[in-house]
Amino acid sequence: DANKPQAATFARSSLDALDRLNSAATELKSAPGLNKIVGSWWATNTPNVPGSDAANAKAKLDALKSPAAFTVLQAMRQASPTGGALGAVSDKENELLQNNLASLDQAQSYEEFSAALDKIINFTQQSKLNVSKGYRDTYGEDLKQEKAIPVAPTAPAQRKAGEVYQTPKGP
Hints:
Blueprint: H1 4-29, H2 34-37, H3 41-45, H4 53-79, H5 91-101, H6 110-139
């Protein structure tokens, strides 16, 4: 089939996007500061101390919202015959897309927020199965995954208690 290479590329891209979304939701769910950024007035209305567990959890939440919206947007575009039915997306529409999978409102209880993360994780797992099954049903074989280029892990910079970070001076 002439469309098979393009379908395989698209399926791999979809699986990669779903993996990133799953990882982001899983990392946020296990973040030590999650309980400090959801579920109370204090958590949603006070600034986070840079470098704190709460600030790190908030950064993970912000990072999760973008791929969640993108995943929903891609699915809607794929369902369109021309692929471009949505056109440009406004900030408000982007926010609505972000909440399409699950509400990630920091004002909700910790339990509800955690359940929303579970919903995203379950969605990604089921969607990956659907993409793989769709490819297999169409082409009669499993999708061959391309070997990923290994990336060296990076560890966050470690500082001793009380140590002040100084920006390196340029030449």
